[in-house]
Design a protein that fits this description.
The protein has about 475 residues and is an alpha+beta fold. The protein has 17 helices and 15 strands.
Length: about 475
Amino acid sequence: MSARAIFRPVLIAAVLCATSACGSAAKKSRVGDTVLTASSASGFQLRPYGEKALPNGLKILYVEDNSLPYVSFSLLLKTGSSSDPAAFPGLSLLVAETLDKGAAKRSALDVADDLGRIGADFSASVTADASTVTGSSLSMHADRLLSIFSEAVMEPTFSEAEIARARRQILAAIQRRVDNADALADTAWADHLFGNHPYARPPLGTSRSVQSVKRKNVIQHYLRHYRPNNAILAVTGKLSPELVAKVERTFSAWDAREIPAVRYPAFPKIDKIQIRLVDNPALVQAQIRLGHKGIKRQNDDFIALRVANTILGGAFASRLMDRVRKELGLTYGISSGFDARLDFGPFEISTFTKNESAGQAIAEILKVVETFRKGGATDEEVKRAKGYLKGVFPTAIETAEKFAYNLLMLRLYGIPDSYLTNYLRDLDRVSTSDVNRVIQQYIDPANMKALVYSSSKAVLPQLQPLGIVEVKKAADFQ
């Protein structure tokens, strides 16, 4: 699906979303009537940014960057694949994929030609919690980019022909998923872990659901969710008072509507070790996922859990890497992470190994996690993990666009901007006892689900001694 496809949430980007007290304004400038402020706390100062709310509910963020002659628009909709109807997983992506395929004043060919003439990029992506539409170009073409971008967002036509074209592309990607072991394992893992929860719905959809989507479903979904009071717009780059005025005038014409709320059921109960084996006789390697219920994004233990997870498997120098990769040589890579979302996201351990060692790999992973839970982290491990997290923090906001993206995420999850300014201070305040408390509270190796995508003939006998095993076919996730 190229750059327009789904992106998997990455913890390094989500590093910038938690709670803390507000920082003080340290620097101000003005673009039009919008004041840009740079906040600082504990010596950490952010680049200037501003925010304005339009009467229709649209929030607009301004992040000025004069280092290069560019401008970009990033529109975040607070609607992701978890908002897809149960009968139509993949609907959010299909809507996003067809936004720029024809608007009120431009055909699909016109949009493509107009973007091409100014060397502009246009992309859309979908995660469980949000959809994002982005357009960028040289700043000299800012007015033309704004015109194309706003029409695509506010006046898409969703022609039958373009929906059919996008449907064929998505169906082809779904068919290829069976040959992409990592991607199919992720899809089967979400289904296994979440059950009937909306987070189980694959952003890409299924062959059946994508084929059954009608134009009316696309239009209904768009009208319900692509509303200014359900969106945040980030404008980044060379900003002028004239551009700011045009942005606000253009998007003020967007009509608001009541947004349907997403209702999340209880997280499925996990009792002991529950293994799902997805059979593909052609595979010689096993994709492995283990985990259980994680946390919501607004959890106050978010930073302490980041430290704990960094020690367990969130960095190359971690307990899982040391044992499973370096000491036993069972894999080239293994990682763990808490994907914190609007509702409870997953705690997940991800790796792969040859078929012959699938059972051993799972057993060793469980041993590492059990030892970690029982013995906790050491002072030295906590010190190293905090140093690592401090080191990667600046890279996550080093560019204006990365910074704007993180501001969007903060608003999506209801976290104050001061999280950024106070991050280093709050990280310093995490103690070893804090880390060991959250390990005990949020990590439970005795009650986990596991997903193995491999050859049933090769790995089933290894899995049966470890827990309850359910066998599915790869075709079940097409």
